[in-house]
Batch of 4 targets.
Target 1
Amino acid sequence: MNNITTYYIDLENKIEVNRVKEFLNKFNLDYNLVDATLVIKNENQNIIATCSKLNNVIKCVAVSENYLNQNLLNKLITEISRLIYSQGEKEIFVYTKQKNKYIFEDLNFKSIVTTDNVVFLTNNYDNYLKYKNYLLKSITADKTCILVMNCNPLTHGHAFLIDYASKNFEKVLIIPVKEDVSLFTYNERQKMILTYIKSFKNVDLINGSNYLVSNVTFPSYFLNNENEVVLSQAEIDAKIFVNLFESKKRFITRLVGNEPFSRTTNLYNKVLDKILNKNEISFLEIERQKINGEVVSASQVRKNIYENKEWNYLVPNTTIKIISKINLNKRMIDKNIYKKN
């Protein structure tokens, strides 16, 4: 094994990328949504093992059958974990097929949920349990509504859902999406929610995490992607929600607004409905708020901001006050998201 080489491929190099895709095809694995790919090649410069990552998620892992006893998987995981930790992450996740579960368990990963297709594991299960206990302690009423929201930014549409939930449930818990992949940061979106719900006596803001609608559990939520990928990731995300709240499932309802525009969110809502009902958790989908006959959406607000069009009428005053303190032109340039996201 002295003649093997290990290196990260250039993701802009189509030849290298295609070679990885061809190698993974032999294992019925799709190659998508990655930000780094590590390969091991033999003396003939053929790929014999590979793994990739997206942020702190390890995926697309495969080792050639002829090299299974050469400890290559351990080599791959050790190296790509080093890269993930060097980027400031404190927890690593893995997507893999069920037959590979025991391999990662030997490397100190533990399963969070499984589906017919994949297993989702973490190397910091205590952190997952800590967040789960935090959520369960937040359920203090017999009739509790859970809202998982991006609020990028908080619009009249989000406000409509919050108002509806407050009037129809004893307690409302809002869990904001934690990702910072678009125009407004997690902290800014938290402030938008906090300032809006200040007058509500039965609405609380809960900390977001990597475990619900994130680039970890549901990366295609933030991109347009193939249906099969979206459905698979939505199933993982929905099953994590079930796992997190299962012991208090009789007390909760997951509330969402219907989605006439985003194919990804529409598919996600359908998967959520199916899995939650199967696990005896109430699911409620209501019509979205409309202004001048048009459904209010955060994406429309961002689009109007990018195109320098009127957007204030789509959001409450509490949101306007927060956005007014942000240099939007500088933000769009700094984050390189002009007319995107």
Note: The CA atoms of residues 1 and 170 lie 64 Å apart.
Target 2
Amino acid sequence: GNSAAAPANSTSRIESADMISRRALLFAAAGSASAFRPRCWALAFSSAAAKAVPHPASLDGKTLVSVDDCLNAYRSDPSGIVFCDASWYHRSARSGRDDFISGPRLPHARYIDMDDISTKGENNPKNLPHMMPDKNLFAAMMDEFDIANDDRIVIYGRDGCIFTPRTYFLFQQCGHDENKLHLMQGSLEEWVEKGGAIEEGTASIPNADDVDPSKTAAYKARDPVNVVDMERMMEVVERQGNDSVILDPRGTSFDKAHMPGAVNIPYRSIVSDGDTLKFRPKEELEALFNKAGVDVNTERKIMLTCGSGVSVCHLWVALAECGRENAEKTFVYDGSWAEWGAEKTTPKLST
């Protein structure tokens, strides 16, 4: 893939970025693209600083990578990283898609819209939100984004969003090389504050309705392998305790109603108090699971469910960060409470 390619029909440009640091506070205060003129500022750094900058390969095998890690990798090889904006807001009028289109954004970034790249229509008769796509749709969209299987993907979000792990899960489940798949721990705003390059001006985003999934794609994807449906979850609930445990990361909605036997580990307890885009350190994550009575390396199946298959991905990443190696025994219920709660025949409990 051409990771240096600008978004389709983009009117943005990349120019000198000497003023980035001076304008960072303005950007943070404004919280929108309105604080910027329609241009794109590229990163400027001294030759002395460039000498010891790590290559993007230094990110290999690391799911969680700091803003500094990403900056250094980008400075070493700007064409070696594909940035993917995963900003998405729950119960908010703010639109990550609109913010991306108007800018600013990271250089040559793509916007991954979980609501658009999803199973719809006759393949989703209950009209459930942002259901995982099949391999053909995902591959077709990767071709539209000019993303290849061997591209290094860095997923990021804007200040105030929290659900970037869902996009990580999407790429991982559809078969992208996990060694080249990363979650930036920190926001676009932090990147700017540290002098990182930004792209300004308007950009367009490919729409899933405009692609033909039946065509052979250059990108080679797989169907999600750790995703289960309601029937499978019903089986688990009926025989739970013997071979499985159910984890639910919802907040106050968990107390209102949840699956019998589900253990609550709120997703907000998984991230930093000061930055919702940063996971807590491994030791703190381990303490969360221990407090909930969850053995991360249990041989039992761990079934993950939430409101609509989004916040559940925080648990997916947290389990892996804590060393869970039984990926073949960890599953996400895609329909989650959006489906389970609407069914009259599904058992429900309240706290």
Note: The beta strands are 64-66, 82-85, 110-111, 153-157, 181-187, 227-228, 244-248, 263-264, 301-304, 330-333.
Target 3
Amino acid sequence: MRVLLVALLTVTIVFTNASPADLWRAVLDPEVLYEVSDNIPALATKLNLTTLVQFVTKAGLAGPLSGPGPFTVFGPDNAAFGKLPKALVDILMKNTTLLAEVLKYHVIAGAVYSSAITNELTAPTLLPGADIRLNVYGKTVTASGRKVIKVDQNATNGVIHVLGGVMLPPAGTVTKLAQETPKTFSTLVHALVAANLANALNGPGPFTVFAPTNQAFANLPPGALIDLLKNPKKLAAVLLYHVVDGTFYSAALSDGLKVQTKNGKNVTVSISGSNVKVNDANVIEADVTVTNGAVHVIDAVLLPPNMRFERIDEHRTHIVPVQKHEQYRMRLIKTLNSFQVV
């Protein structure tokens, strides 16, 4: 009875001596405020990144990402996965090795918080040889060109930054990308070789390249491409008009923005709704990631101001238009074939 009485008196004294400040100190204790109970996959589920969790599980990465870490995960939201072409999703669903590689490209070993992110910072991912490029444009942060829409979501084994897009591992440098996609860029590759710029765009950069497609080159005035290919200095001036120092993903572009190219002349960006133009060329695929910068695919060749070309004189030839076009095409093929692609 005496022991019980002493215990009751002790409790009474403790509560008697407590103040409202003691209560708030308990509530506002940092260990309570920042208490984290979820690992990366569990936190991703709470953040409604359900497609990411589904893909991580399918690729066999849920276990590793539940381990001690720490990891930094750039996690695309469901809408980001929904914007992927169906053909690409089908490939990833059928090839779990490739799916795992794409997902590993979204993970950095170690905890990297937003306060540590600086413009042009590159960080190695769990995919060997593939770095994420981080850029800061004012208040906007991008990871390999995809906007970070929510930062510093804490897990027990790391941190998640939510992305508004899915990052695809780079195929290599600007030149390497063009070489690996000949159906789109074979003429660009020939032009880079002829102008002695292929090695330059294999360099560290970073560069932003507005890359014309094969069709864009084909749409040049008759004789213009042959004229360029036979005049390397003139060709280099045109190609350098497509290259900007630094990484300008679409998040960095604004309507009316003028950007100085390596040619020394400016190009002008125009934005109307979802349509983006550089001078008079439409951007038909933006934010292609390469190891030394970014590529925007355009549907026309950008021509520096006041540049002129030799042209086939329609008034001084008796060749009918169809024959003349075929003759031009054969001359073009012959000229292209004279340059060895490295």
Note: The chain is about 35% helix and 25% strand.
Target 4
Amino acid sequence: MGDPLWPLLNAGLHLSGSHGSTSFPDVKGHTFTRSGAVAISTAQSRFAGEGSAYFPGGASDRLSCAASADFIFTGATSLSISFSLYLLAYPAAGNQCRIVNIGTNGSGSSFCVALNEFHDMGAYVPLSGKNFLFATGGEVSLNTWQDFEISVFNGTALMFKNGLIIASRTGLDMPTGGTSNIVRIGGDQSGYPTVDAALNGYLSELRILCKWGRHDSAYAPASGPFEEGFSLNYARAAPAFPLVQPARPAWKAVRQSPPALLLDAEHGGRGRIVGTTQADGDPDYPVSRRVRLLRQRDGALAREIWSDADGNYAFDRIRHDVPYVLMSHDHTGLFNAVIADGVIPELIP
């Protein structure tokens, strides 16, 4: 199991823990520190027993991460920011709260997700002259947990609330340039009071993808904290046998001999290795991938095949008396190779 977009994730904060904690670990290793009175609270939890980050609404109450090249959008036409919000109060008239701000105000390399006085959620590059995406139906409620996601795919922006699309826009202006960006959570520090309102409420399950969208259609809301990591698992599969053996032609007086082995003096034999290539999921699902068979002793390539659409692969008529290394490569480029070591072939009857 895991997150298929894990390799592309730039930051992930569960914002959970014991009551009163001031530690806010990022699953991607960045350091987020608090200013003001932000702390973990068990008064509200998006998922039972998890806790969440409480933002009291003071002018200095926020989380920050120092400038990092991990948070730039250079060359990106897609992105995603998602979080769970339990809001206690709306911004004052004429003000916005930038719940998540990546970069600095007035910079074309920045991007933010903001809540306005009209209870609307929006997303935009915080630079004059740029267009924006805003849901205009007063979609943000008080005193209840709501899941929000902004995902952009090649400039087409979608805003989700609890898995349903509530706003969309084609041709959203995207952030460009820059060499590094800071991240602020719970409020900006631009020096302009109209966009520096502080968040008053609870925040949980924050994820940031700077160059990839997450959902492009309605989805089922999460039933637990976001998963960490992603892996491809391999499971051995029994060789396929026909249920009905074909009858031998009546005119054959002598039983036909088994097919002769092709001559492979180095790697040939009477061994077989079968299995399936699967990706973690709920449930696991098959994937077609290139699979290489290497002789464990010296890494010599013995066979190379692709698993079929159902993930099945088989290496037949290989040496049965030596151990091998199985290696599967992800041709999509998203994941590292998966390796099984010390694989012993089964003897073909």
Note: The chain has two domains: 6-209, 232-239+260-347.
